[in-house]
Design the sequence.
């Protein structure tokens, strides 16, 4: 064997090794996250139960039912509409693993945009996963992309025409679940998820529904509850309750002319009272520095602290940052306050959920303390 | 006799002065019926409606009120703070909203109505987009009720000081119930 053959062989081996390592890393994103159903879960279904064609696709996802067996309202909670917003996902996981419905029925979809958990957004430098120490073991969860995985839907159009409004959005928004409602059975993979969720709302006669999100600390709609006009009194009442506990939330109304969003289309196309909640997530922000798992979990970024010192932030941001526990705590407390306000408004259809940890407890003990 | 008359005169003068100083410290009194409208279309107007209800003050809340809606009204309450989602929900532009608020304040001035401004949205309702509305409403008011977080830079306190407007700062929205009730003599 001549020298250049040996060099070429070595180069091939190195390339092969790099490809194998990178390929293995890439494929780990296709390993589903482990969600351990807790004592409250009475049934686990797939979203395709409500729309058959989703079965066997990357979009199908688990639906956890917690039925108290007692009359009351039915509530739906979505996490993971945007898989790069981990507080929404982790709140839904915590509900699935820890709480029990004692009146009415709670339905939780922790990974509403399931295929979006199998990739990250390009050029963002996001970690692929993060770990949380639960009561029993070290749990690993994927940190996904904002939208569905582009592979099953490739290529994106240049312009996304939202159905049925015809509203024009940038092409990549075609994979954004929270622009795809009410969806359609013959639509894109993401529109089909939206359609399936609408069928679930209809078939399960959902009364009150939540879409849990996060956003960059610098955007105006932050630490907020967004609702359809029919939910404004419930939201305002909940906000009063939350404020008494020193938890400030802005109340925002769903724009009628911005189509495809859960708070707009769920409200317009079903009898449900819809609410979307946002917490402040520094890893999504443009000002952020080092982008690693600690930014997901601890939420501490000096640049946001500097911005706050300069008076450019609309929320309070101190050196304690915006840890995941605090963000999950806000979502949970917001949910509970909205459950309470709903029960005051519609007393004949209550929903009572036991074991929701208090905001203070979850901030003090961390999310993992409430995971199996 | 002459001495007694002087003493009575002095006593009356003291009473007038004393009462005048009291009035100077007292907040402007407001009367019902009350119209609540927004300046910036934030949903804080809904929260303000609940706040007045808790204060036992009957109101009519019209986020997109027009000058004609002031007929029969004695107090105009402006809930200041910008919301892009709110403007979208209302289907109007920022400029149209600024124009609407200006026309409402002008009409209130012509009708000699009392104007109260509430700023209850904290930091979320501050910044360039909100402050045009905040300033417009605050400067035209005879009473400002502000949740402290929105006045960390003394934005409202300075306006109150410069324009000699009574201001109350409260820690929380819920703390605003009592000042509202007091302002309406409840």
Sequence:
């Amino acid at each position: 064997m001549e020298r250049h053959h040996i060099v070429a062989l070595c180069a091939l081996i190195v390339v092969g090794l790099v490809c194998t390592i990178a390929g293995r890393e890439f494929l780990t994103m296709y390993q589903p996250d482990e969600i351990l159903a807790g004592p409250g879960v009475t049934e686990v279904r797939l979203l395709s139960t409500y729309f058959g064609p989703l079965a066997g696709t990357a979009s199908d996802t688990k639906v956890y039912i917690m039925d108290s067996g007692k009359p009351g309202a039915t509530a739906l909670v979505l996490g993971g509409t945007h898989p790069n917003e981990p507080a929404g996902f982790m709140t839904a996981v915590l509900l699935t693993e820890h709480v029990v419905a004692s009146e009415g029925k709670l339905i939780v979809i922790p990974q509403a945009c399931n295929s979006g958990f199998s990739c990250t957004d390009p050029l963002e430098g996001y970690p692929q996963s993060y770990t949380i120490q639960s009561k029993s073991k070290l749990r690993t969860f994927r940190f996904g992309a904002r939208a569905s995985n582009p592979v099953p839907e490739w290529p994106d159009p240049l312009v996304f025409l939202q159905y049925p409004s015809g509203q024009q959005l940038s092409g990549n928004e075609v994979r954004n679940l929270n622009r795809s409602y009410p969806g359609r059975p013959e639509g894109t993979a993401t529109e089909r998820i939206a359609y399936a969720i609408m069928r679930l709302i209809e078939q399960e006669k959902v009364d009150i529904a939540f879409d849990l999100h996060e956003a960059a600390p610098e955007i105006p709609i932050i630490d907020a509850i967004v609702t359809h006009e029919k939910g404004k009194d419930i939201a305002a009442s909940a906000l009063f309750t939350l404020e008494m506990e020193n938890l400030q939330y802005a109340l925002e109304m769903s724009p009628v002319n911005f189509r495809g969003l859960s708070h707009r289309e769920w409200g317009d196309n079903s009898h449900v009272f819809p609410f979307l909640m946002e917490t402040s997530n520094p890893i999504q922000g443009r000002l952020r520095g080092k982008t690693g798992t600690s930014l997901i979990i601890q939420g501490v970024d000096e640049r946001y602290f500097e911005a706050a010192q300069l008076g450019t932030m609309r929320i309070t941001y101190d050196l304690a940052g915006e840890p995941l526990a605090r963000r999950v705590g806000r979502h949970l407390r917001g949910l509970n306050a909205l459950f309470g306000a709903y029960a005051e408004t519609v007393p004949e259809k209550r929903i009572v959920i036991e074991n929701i940890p208090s905001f203070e407890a979850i901030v003090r003990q961390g999310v993992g303390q409430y995971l199996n | 006799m002459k001495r007694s008359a002087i003493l009575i005169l002095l006593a009356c003068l003291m009473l007038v002065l004393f009462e005048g100083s009291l009035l100077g410290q007292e907040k402007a009194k407001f009367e019902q019926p009350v119209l609540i409208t927004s300046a910036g279309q934030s949903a804080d107007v809904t929260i303000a409606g609940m706040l007045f209800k808790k204060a036992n003050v009957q109101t009519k809340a019209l986020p997109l009120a027009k000058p004609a809606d002031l007929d029969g009204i004695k107090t105009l309450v402006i809930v200041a703070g910008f919301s892009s989602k709110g403007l979208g929900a209302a289907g109007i532009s920022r400029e149209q909203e600024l124009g609407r608020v200006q026309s409402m304040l002008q009409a209130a001035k012509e009708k000699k109505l009392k104007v109260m401004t509430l700023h209850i949205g904290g930091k979320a309702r501050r910044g360039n987009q909100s402050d045009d509305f905040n300033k417009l409403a605050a400067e035209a008011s005879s009473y400002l009720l502000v949740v402290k977080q929105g006045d960390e830079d003394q934005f409202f306190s300075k306006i109150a000081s410069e324009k000699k407007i009574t201001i109350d700062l409260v820690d929380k929205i819920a703390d605003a119930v009592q000042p509202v009730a007091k302002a309406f003599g409840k």
